[in-house]
Structure formats: C-alpha cells, structure tokens
Amino acid sequence: MREGSALPGAPGAAPVPGFLAKLWALVEDPQSDDVICWSRNGENFCILDEQRFAKELLPKYFKHNNISSFIRQLNMYGFRKVVALENGMITAEKNSVIEFQHPFFKQGNAHLLENIKRK
C-alpha cells in the first residue's frame, strides 16, 4: 500500500500513511498471528517472536529487517511500548513479548487510523 492511500474497504476514508496501513494489514492478517497479533482485549498489538518478525515479516511489509527502525517509526506516530507491572514495579518480560499501544490503533476500528499523525 502506498503512502497516503486509503484503507481498502473504507469508502471515503481520509488517506492513511502507508506505514500505518501496512501495520494494520500485518496485525490483522491471521496467517501472522504466531508472530504478531492483537492483545486479548484488542487495545494493543503484540510482537510474539521478535526474531521471526524481523527476518520474515519486516522485509515482506516494510522492505527492511531492522526492528529498531520499525520501533522508531512506531514512536514517530505516537505508539508507546506497554510495560508489565507486577506489585507496582516494572518487571522484565519473562516471555519477551513486545507490546505497543496507541489510542487510535484498536482492533475492529480501522476508521480511527486517520487520526494518527506523524510527529
């Protein structure tokens, strides 16, 4: 999907940056759920296998395999990493799942993507 294109199936939708459209397609794709998927409540998305994500999916969707560049892009669009809290303290992830959230990136709400702006 090109930069500034509308999401498929969204008639009259405002243009959505290519990065966000690709990210949405990637998280929505059930075939990649073992690597990247929505959280249980649909409020966040999770990268379940960082190595496979960088090796298999980043090149397919974003034409590079640099996880740091991908995270930098997320940050430029206002996404924030979700940290695990246990007993009021930040804990290291035991299973190394990386989770991100954005107020306008919610499962089943593609229409909200037009509200996400690059900083």
UniProtKB/TrEMBL annotation:
<keyword id="KW-0010">Activator</keyword>
<dbReference type="InterPro" id="IPR036388">
    <property type="entry name" value="WH-like_DNA-bd_sf"/>
</dbReference>
<dbReference type="Pfam" id="PF00447">
    <property type="entry name" value="HSF_DNA-bind"/>
</dbReference>
<dbReference type="GO" id="GO:0042803">
    <property type="term" value="F:protein homodimerization activity"/>
</dbReference>
<dbReference type="GO" id="GO:0000785">
    <property type="term" value="C:chromatin"/>
</dbReference>
<dbReference type="GO" id="GO:0001046">
    <property type="term" value="F:core promoter sequence-specific DNA binding"/>
</dbReference>
<protein>
    <recommendedName>
        <fullName>HSF-type DNA-binding domain-containing protein</fullName>
    </recommendedName>
</protein>
<dbReference type="InterPro" id="IPR036390">
    <property type="entry name" value="WH_DNA-bd_sf"/>
</dbReference>
<dbReference type="GO" id="GO:0005737">
    <property type="term" value="C:cytoplasm"/>
</dbReference>
<keyword id="KW-0238">DNA-binding</keyword>
<dbReference type="GO" id="GO:0005634">
    <property type="term" value="C:nucleus"/>
</dbReference>
<comment type="similarity">
    <text>Belongs to the HSF family.</text>
</comment>
<keyword id="KW-0346">Stress response</keyword>
<keyword id="KW-0805">Transcription regulation</keyword>
<keyword id="KW-0804">Transcription</keyword>
<feature type="domain" description="HSF-type DNA-binding">
    <location>
        <begin position="58"/>
        <end position="82"/>
    </location>
</feature>
<dbReference type="InterPro" id="IPR000232">
    <property type="entry name" value="HSF_DNA-bd"/>
</dbReference>
<keyword id="KW-0539">Nucleus</keyword>
<keyword id="KW-0963">Cytoplasm</keyword>
<dbReference type="GO" id="GO:0003700">
    <property type="term" value="F:DNA-binding transcription factor activity"/>
</dbReference>
